[in-house]
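Researcher: Here's the sequence for the chain we discussed earlier.
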Amino acid sequence: MKRYQFFLRILPEDYLDYYRGVARHVVVQATSGETVQFPAGLLMKFVTEAGVDGHFVLLCDSNNKCVSLERIAR
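Model: Thanks. This is the structure I predict for it:
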């Protein structure tokens, strides 16, 4: 499995585009320098009144399909 770590901060007003389906994918730069794209729906469980903020790990299978997204301690 491929593992991507990244920091992400999306303000509440910016997250509305993802929530409404206007933006369907999130593009981030992993700490390795790689650019990673994943479905915005994976962030739903991490949304708070402050938006989305944290250090995350995305696991993908050998076909680059997202397996899991987890927030990790800073």
